[in-house]
Amino acid sequence: MTGPVYVGVDVGGTKIGLNAVHEDRSPVSPSWIEVESRSHLGPEDTVLQIAIGVRAFLDHAHLTADRIAGVGIDSPGPADIQGRIQRSANMHPAWEGFHLREQVQKALVASFGRTFPVTYENDCNAAALWESFTGNPQGNEVMALLAPGTGLGGGIVIEGRLLRGARGMGGELGHVEIVHPPFVPGAPAGGCGCGQQHCTEAYASMAALIKLLPAALAEPRWKNHPLLQIQGEDVWRKRAYQVRGLAAKGDELCRAIFDWQSEAIGRLCRQVADTIDPHRIVIGGGFIEGGAELTERILRIVRETFRKLAFKKHAEDVSIVAAAAGDQAGCLGAALSAWQSAHGAR
């Protein structure tokens, strides 16, 4: 297909994913490409990697730079609408205050010798935008995405447009507070990385798992649990990363943890429904990547919890579904953001 393309760049903690959309908003490539993000070295290294990634994607898709009509980037954590990164417990401290969009624009000029319009989105906002577009291309729905992973990201799309807010920091749904009992009775709440105690992210995220496991595994009944066989540096993080796989295999403790986290998500869905009155709520992120059986169990518990708490009309009408767009939702959503900006629809 000829004509302009809009490149999307999904910046993660370890990798950068890139794809693009055509003028009709169809993906340029059936598969994305990835380059290292090197975010642990600081934002300047990541910016250089973004420029390298854009060039690599052009080669991958057999495109020339003159076809690029815009570039959209996304990144984890909160940031303002201009792409200035705010403090996040899940990111390297050097990122705080970094002007990502502005610096990427400069790096692209240095690499290609021309200026591209560059837009910025939070990574979950970008994923929500693409998820809504693929599920409702006519753009007439109200939708929220909840994406439990390392943290708990969120995004809200209203009639095809992201709810960015006055500063670009809207839709931080993981920091909506809920009332949820501790997994281990009497254990103190682990708290959220933002400093508050009862954010949903403090219950349903990898960060929450790391804080939860010491109390859970201290119970005598789990003294021979396979997670305790994992040793070494940063041991609780290593153990937390094994919980999903064990839950998928039917491990009693790990399934109970996922059930408890699913109830927390169901409570958050009640808050979201009361706030934006959505047509549907989409559950994405690493939370639902444990296979079909575990995903169905998660969705069942989320829906049951939601329906017990929600107003009758919401309980009957709000659809809660698994994300369908896959790993490329972030980069394609970033590309769609660039498309919207070029067409005055952002």
Structure description:
With 346 residues, this protein is an alpha/beta fold. 39% of the residues lie in helices and 16% in strands. The protein contains 9 helices and 10 strands. The protein has helices spanning 43-61, 100-112, 123-135, 206-217, 235-248, 252-276, 292-309, 312-317, 329-342, and strands at residues 5-11, 15-22, 33-36, 68-75, 118-122, 142-148, 152-158, 161-162, 280-283, 319-322. Strand 6 and strand 7 form a beta hairpin. The longest helix has 25 residues, at 252-276.
Helix content: 25-40%
> What is the strand arrangement across the widest sheet?
3-2-1-4-5
Shape: globular
Global mean pLDDT: 94
How would you summarize the topology of this molecule?
Layout: E1 5-11, E2 15-22, E3 33-36, H1 43-61, E4 68-75, H2 100-112, E5 118-122, H3 123-135, E6 142-148, E7 152-158, E8 161-162, H4 206-217, H5 235-248, H6 252-276, E9 280-283, H7 292-309, H8 312-317, E10 319-322, H9 329-342
Parallel strand pairs: 1-4, 4-5, 6-9, 9-10
Antiparallel strand pairs: 1-2, 2-3, 6-7, 7-8
Helix pairs in contact: 1-2, 3-9, 4-5, 5-6, 6-7
